[in-house]
Amino acid sequence: MADPYTLLGVSRSASEKDIKAAYRRLAKELHPDRNQGKPDASEKFGKITAAYDLLSDKDKRAQFDRGEIDGDGNPASPFGFGGGGGGFGGGQGGFRHDGFEGFAARPGDGAGPDLGDLFEGLFGGRGGGRRAPPQRGANVTYRLVVPFVDAATRAPQRITLKDGKTIDLKLPPGVESGQQVRLPGKGDAGPGGTGDALVTLEIGAHPTFERDGDNIRIDVPITLDEAVGGARIKVPTVDGAVMLTVAPGTTGGKTLRLKGKGFSRKDGERGDQLVTLQIDLPPDDADLRRRLEGWQDTRNPRARLGV
Predict the structure, then answer these.
(1) I need a surface site. Which of 59, 79, 138, 233 has the fewest CB within 10 A?
(2) How far apart are the first and last CA of the chain?
(3) Is the pTM of this model over 0.70?
């Protein structure tokens, strides 16, 4: 075996910290799991591991520095051979490759050096053959703007995923802006399984409807004659137009309730639609002025306001 200092690229005066840092760098670079397809990766990794084993052992490093053992840890011999019991590079091998962890002790070498702390920081696991669980694929996030009427009626929303596939997303009861829907297994693939798709919902605005909790509000104009004499009028809802009865003598600002025409609640039931009637007078109508000429409402409708 070559000089262990040379293999690790450090000087003979290198500190334990320097030796450990050099080995970390080389192990990360040469580890077989990161060099698949390179047949010499295991051999190179074995040599630097054996070199680190020797130099991280204070007694063996001192023996090597005094020339008592060679780079394989065998007793130095003028005849070029040594004992086989404590070798680092002999035929029985110096390490066992088991993912990013798992280094076996060498025969005759007792428990061997504990490399667990080294590989815990280097490869994210500990020694002793325990492998970190495979990592799942990443989650993929989406933002979906849901039209107001679709949100109220929980109409399915078609969404195109990252892979180009489309799915019909079912909206949850009581859907709110900012709510997130998880689609298991619709994220990125990974060795430990596929991640999820996370869809953040945003409810779009509507030109006439306004959400009020689980209810929907809308202002509906009526004519003066409809307010005075009463009428049946058509009113829009998120489910389509319906007929609404306006009682005779209806005051502007009166609110009527349409049951079950609002947003779905978390229990699956729906809120209501609140219809506020607004009397709409024609602008500068001469005929209306002529009809009202001489007539005056003597009430004070603002009396309850204290004026």
Answers:
(1) 79
(2) 107
(3) no
